[in-house]
Amino acid sequence: MRRTFSTLGAAVLAASLVAPGTAHAAAEPRDSKIVDFKISTTKDAWLTVSGRLAAADGSPVGAGRDLIIETMPASRSKWYRMPLSKKAKPIKLKTREGGAFSGRYYAGYAHGWYRIRFAGGPLLKPAVSAVVRDTRINALTTKWKVTPRKVRKGGYVTFSGVLTHDPVVKYVPFAGQRVYIYGRIKGQKKWYWYARPKTNSKGYFKARFRVSKDTYFEWYYAGNATHYYDFPLKSTFVDVR
Asked: What is the DSSP string of 30-95?
């Protein structure tokens, strides 16, 4: 014989299916802020960032919150997410327990601007740090000239160029600086410096010395406490006959 539910049993079952237990509304995300944001750079273009992500009400922030580093050129044209190169590995900057963060990466724009962005989440609202400027200035060598590029053994070769820097969004002569002339003999791996001329009031430098073997040459400005270093992307070859 087939059994059927009683009227009371059916009502109880229907109630259990339709009326769930008491639902609790999700808590509103708290306001957040990024504090103590600082940067520093080295002359060979390494950037260090540090700071702390905090809840505005003072409650603790846990580890593992993802942060984004953004940089903008000195001209203040537009913000870009770091790293700037599409071939570079993505930056993984995360908070430690308590919200502190720090990291070391290849720098963005020389004398540019930096900020940290937090995209927010279920428990914290988005936040953006204060904007901090890189005080280190770019140096740039132009008008590099090597003559002659074919020379008899022991013949003289002249090297010259103009060193400039960019303190106010415009390159101007950089006077009183040592620029090294480095060389690597063809077939060898080690580089040696041959001369270290000093720039004049117009940023011009010049060196002249004998060359006895096929050699690749480059200029090198080492940078200082306020400037980045500078060197060419490609060497200049002097052919000794």
From this structure: BPEEEEEEEEEE-TTSEEEEEEEEEETTS----S--EEEEEEE-TT----EESPSSTTSPPP-EE-
